[in-house]
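Good morning N.,

You mentioned wanting to compare the apo and holo forms, so I went ahead and generated the holo version with 2-acetamido-2-deoxy-beta-D-glucopyranose. This is what I fed in:
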Amino acid sequence: MARRPPLPISVPRRIPFSKPFLLLLFILVTVCSIGFFYNAQKISYFFRPVWDTPPRPFTRLPHYYAQNVSMDHLCKLHGWTVRSSPRLVFDAVIFSNELDILEIRFHELFPYVHKFVILESNTTFTGIPKPLFFQENQQRFEFASSKIVRGTFPGQVDLGRTQRNPFDLESKHRVAVNKLLRSSGIGPGDVVIMADSDEIPSPQTLQLLQWCDGVPPVMHLELRHYMYSFEFPVDYSSWRATAHLFGQSTQYRHSRQSDIILADAGWHCSFCFRTIDEFVFKMTAYSHADRVRRASFLDHARIQKIICEGDDLFDMLPEEYTFHELIKKMGSIPKSSSAVHLPSYLIDNADKFRFLLPGGCVRAD
Ligand SMILES: *[C@@H]1O[C@H](CO)[C@@H](O)[C@H](O)[C@H]1NC(C)=O
Ligand SMILES: *[C@@H]1O[C@H](CO)[C@@H](O)[C@H](O)[C@H]1NC(C)=O
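and this is what came out, ligand included:
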């Protein structure tokens, strides 16, 4: 094989760029890298439709209700039959610091619930010591005391060396609720609601569960999702709350447990707090405390502005699985002036709960 003649050694060409240009390029690259570093989460969320697959879709059960329609007819409309006596309902929640929402929940559901099973911990999911807010405010819940089964979860303080996984501690909480539920006198065939304290099933949902034979043994509850107050309706995306007919294998969980979801089954009011201090507490106690990426996120004036504008506390993009949905949901949540179809205890006590109603976004410190 004939050898090729060696290539002539090329003389390095003069770089055809001037020094100012290189400097500019350097600055540009640096700025872009810093920008990318600080916004990596946003960029990754923006491309979620590319890297993440959406959860399995639910089968939605249409939900029928109107005032003064008999239970017999309502059960039939769902394909079920009316019972001769109602089932007992157990409402099981893990409580953090949502005192106002819990007060609304207990009053709204009181006539339908047999026992309110509530667990609270002396630490947060992220391992920070916290007051037992429910126990310290028991007088607010005195009216329901005969129905309350309360448990304390002995939390462990994070000593700072190992970054404890908040979801680990959260799962231990769920095991503890399970024990508490079993100690509350629940029996086979009773109804259990498993939800966070701010996920409130509507009274008509509980009545269907109490009165109809044929309801699925496990179903999710599709809740209207609100942010900061009922002035900011987000969508119907809230699905984690479930209703179960209790059996030996029933376990307290707050994740996907069934493909069936009952449409329009109640309200989920996230970050519906009266004071800015409660927002700060929840932002640091929350399972997603890693979202507090900058100390400035906890600034009171910033939080107040975000609440009134319906923006995101963590400066994040919505979790959506198609670009269409993502772009639709980007930006502020539009304000609603409707205070119709809300918990009746809230409307009866509108003066006490102005901050949850249209026009009430300004919070106390
Ligand atoms: C409610 O229903 C009953 C019987 O079906 C009827 O007599 C009554 O007038 C109704 N009340 C209202 C307010 O519609
Ligand atoms: C939480 O309660 C448990 C049991 O009462 C106790 O051992 C623990 O020290 C408490 N933790 C804090 C942070 O108060």
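The chain has eleven helices and twelve strands.

Happy to go through it together on a call whenever suits you.

Best,
F.
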